[in-house]
Predict the structure.
Amino acid sequence: MTENTAKAEAGWSFDNSYARLPEIFYTLQKPVPVREPKLVVLNESLAESLGLNAQALQGSEGAAVFAGNEIPEGALPLAQAYAGHQFGYFTMLGDGRAVLIGEQITPQGQRVDIQLKGSGRTPYSRGGDGRAVLGPMLREYIISEAMHALGIPTTRSLAVVTTGQPVMRESEQIGAILTRIAASHLRVGTFQYAAQRGEGDELRSLADYALERHYPDADADTAAGGNRYLALLRQVIRRQAELIAKWQLVGFVHGVMNTDNMTISGETIDYGPCAFMDAYDPATVFSSIDTQGRYAYGNQPYIGAWNLARFAEALLPLLHEDEEQAIKLAEGAIAGFTEQFHSHWLAGMRAKLGLFNPEPEDEALIKELLKLMHKHRADYTNTFRALTHRQWEETALSGDEEFESWLQRWQERLSRQEETQEAAEQLMRSSNPAVIPRNHRVEEALEAAEKEGDYSVMQRLLSALANPYAHTEEQAEYCKLPEPSLRPYRTFCGT
Ligand code: AMP
Ligand code: MG
């Protein structure tokens, strides 16, 4: 077999629409080749759904492509420029350690970005080495795939390779590259960049591009009154409200909701210091660098609104030629976020409690449960799981009189609805995950991989996480809490 037919067999089908944007948005940049690429994880089902031949990508051929040592035909690698508010401060950024190799057109005609993360320095690297470390890349792989299985829009993880080159952090680490799949890598920060750097029509080109790629039906948004850029703003707000509500419902703490880490597509992106909350507490924060708790669990909806206001600001020149009018339109759209978020959250919480129809007292019922969970530091996931399985005596709340009276009110509320108890239980099962990527389980999987080169622990974890709503016997093992530890769990940002 010649090399060319082998490449064709991998199933790559690239287009490079991003490279047709004005020049300020990117720099053509090839990944920097690595010494000894080795494929350690390949997401075979994702590969197949993208029209790729998983078998052809196993082994050295996949390793060479996913390491950036070989550029598949049709790919046009580039580093994207963007800006962002990081912890509230505006900075010019860009892909400092990633390249978009191209957009794969799937057999269903979808366009997805194929990005290598950890692929070497770019013009946007600032002081960084352009590289990534194995642990955090495996962590992104596990958590992004778990999010997908939970039904939460997210970038996906196709593969991880080790590079054979050590990476210097606080100590020497194993170098690795993650292949990330995204509906696109357009960020709120990309628009901030265009608004800041653009001199002509760049902002409009970007907005048109985003509309075409993510919101082709934006014209149908009649509330935007034929203003397609207002429609873009409204649609991004709509998707982010839905996304952040989903995070809250499963107890996901993103950890670094900078505007460069908020997508226009509505997918979760950038799994640096994220983690799932265990004990219910709105102040939960895991990131070692978030000393102020800016991105704490309970703040995520407010930060979402703040970030979207930055998006609206960037769009102002397109919203209306008169600035005051533009601001009015932007404010009207942003005001919708809180209401939309709240209605998704409330609907999701009802489902978690097995409630089909709305009643005015539901929110008070939900909030009281959360208050009790907070008081007892009850595990968020396991409390809802126990309610689902009617095993409330197993929760940390059991024995509390207020909880007993809450239970009674909840049972009465359930019996007032037309649906049967079985139907309510079914709804609860499909709304309350049995398993989430618990921090100690993730750490255990990473440690086996890093220290022993043993990926079987990670593979077992991935299969437990693949059907979080199945509530099987095998999953019970993954529901257990860690032994109490003296130190609070901390994550370290994107290293
Ligand atoms: P993040 O915190 O992962 O969202 O990254 C913020 C910015 O820092 C992005 O522009 C990254 O590309 C850049 N960055 C992070 N780590 C590195 C690195 N090791 N080398 C170069 N740039 C980096
Ligand atoms: Mg980022």
